[in-house]
UniProtKB/TrEMBL annotation:
CDD domains associated with the record: PBP1_LacI_sugar_binding-like (cd06267), WHTH_GntR (cd07377)
One of the record's GO molecular function terms: transcription cis-regulatory region binding
Protein's recorded name: LacI family transcriptional regulator
Coiled-coil residues: none
Membrane-spanning residues: none
């Protein structure tokens, strides 16, 4: 195929024209399996995005049909007549939309949907609060099933909920990709960041800065991302020969606890014989609460206690209070998840794939300024 075949048309348009002509010549019988996106990539030397876009358009035009769990087929004549030409829809089910992390993640999903011609239905299972609700997730999953979506991108709630509904999604052959964390009880595609590296690298940075007693403070606890971060934190302590102190490394919620509970936890740690000099916080929400609580207890940040943030979910501007923080590739995470989903929809049949994206680390030394929390003020 050369660039002169169809003038200056986009590459996927030229591929579509060749495929349409091949069907017209009878090279593919009605009802027979059609060429897969992987085969298109190899045949034309194009990217997955270009191949998926060409196939999606031919499905929307009614020339091809997708059969869940089986792949893409040449449409029978009756199917072509009945085809509406409407683009396929995918569901994006997340929680915590007000935060930068989730908003950017959704933006990544949406950008690929627009690029590939999908419509996106968005559901937030947390709404106005930080905590996601298993019940809201269940309703969003059921609505996606009832709406006959082509696939689902899911940022799952904490814990192992809605197993029956997720099983129904898989029984119906609806492609499913998890983002930010994975489920150990369900084999699915997933796109995550290197959470072990987050815990490890931030801890190493704090140790290099002279901190040997580091308090870990969490939000969610029953998720793989948090468990992997704690593992990385503990590994960094062990490599430096520092003791693993259960009172400092306990995996317990902090961010959404009542203020009295948070203050009591902090006061107990600060009153110990060897109080922590740094706090490794789950996210921006926890950073904000810890800074406020430390000031309430008469301490200063960073004077008495240094803060580190394990991701930028939450009030991003308050991460200026941290000496070091991880920067999540949120937009890339959403875009990658949607591309995996599109490949599944287009007929890729290999087993569950986990994609792990690298993270950046933001240090105070690399910024033009930082915040201090002193005596009830943030400056």
């Amino acid at each position: 195929m050369t660039g002169d075949d169809h003038g200056g048309a986009p590459l996927y348009q030229r591929i579509k024209a060749e495929l349409r002509a091949a069907v017209g010549r009878g090279e593919y019988e009605p009802g027979s399996p059609f060429v897969t996106q992987r085969e298109l990539c190899e045949r034309y030397g194009v990217s997955t995005t270009t191949a998926v876009k060409a196939l999606n358009d031919l499905v929307a035009e009614g020339l091809l049909v997708r059969r869940r769990g089986r792949g893409t087929f040449v449409a029978e004549q009756a199917e072509r007549t009945a085809g509406s030409g409407a683009p396929s829809a995918v569901a994006c089910i997340v929680h915590g939309l007000p935060g930068a992390h989730v908003s950017n993640l959704v933006s990544g999903v949406e950008s690929v949907c627009s690029e590939l011609g999908y419509r996106m239905y968005l559901a937030d299972t947390a709404r106005r609060d930080v905590h996601a609700s298993p019940g809201r997730e269940a309703r969003a999953l059921q609505e996606a099933i009832d709406s006959d979506v082509a696939g689902i991108v899911l940022y799952p709630v904490e814990g192992q909920h809605n197993m029956e509904l997720l099983g129904e999604v898989q029984r119906r052959g609806i492609p499913l990709v998890l983002v930010d964390r994975y489920r150990t009880d369900i084999p699915t595609d997933a796109v995550v960041v290197d959470n072990f590296a987050i815990g490890y690298q931030l801890t190493r940075h704090l140790i290099d800065a002279g901190h040997e007693r580091i308090l870990t403070l969490w939000s969610e606890t029953k998720v793989t991302s948090v468990q992997d971060r704690l593992t990385g934190h503990v590994q960094a302590l062990r490599e430096r020969g520092l003791p693993i102190i259960p009172a400092l490394t306990a995996l317990r919620p902090y961010g959404e606890q009542p203020e009295s509970v948070r203050l009591a936890l902090l006061q107990s740690a600060l009153d110990s014989a060897e109080p922590p000099t740094a706090a490794l916080c789950a996210n921006g929400y926890v950073v904000a609460n810890v800074a406020k609580d430390l000031v309430s207890l008469g301490r200063t940040v960073p004077g008495d206690v240094e803060l580190a943030g394990m991701d930028d979910a939450g009030p991003f501007d308050l991460l200026g209070l941290t000496t070091v923080a991880a920067e999540l590739p949120s937009n890339e995470m959403g875009a990658t998840a949607m591309r995996l989903l599109a490949e599944r929809i287009a007929g890729t049949t290999d087993g569950p794939r986990h994609v792990t994206l690298p993270t950046g680390v933001h240090t105070r030394d690399a910024t033009s300024g930082y915040l201090r929390a002193v005596g009830g003020e943030t400056t």
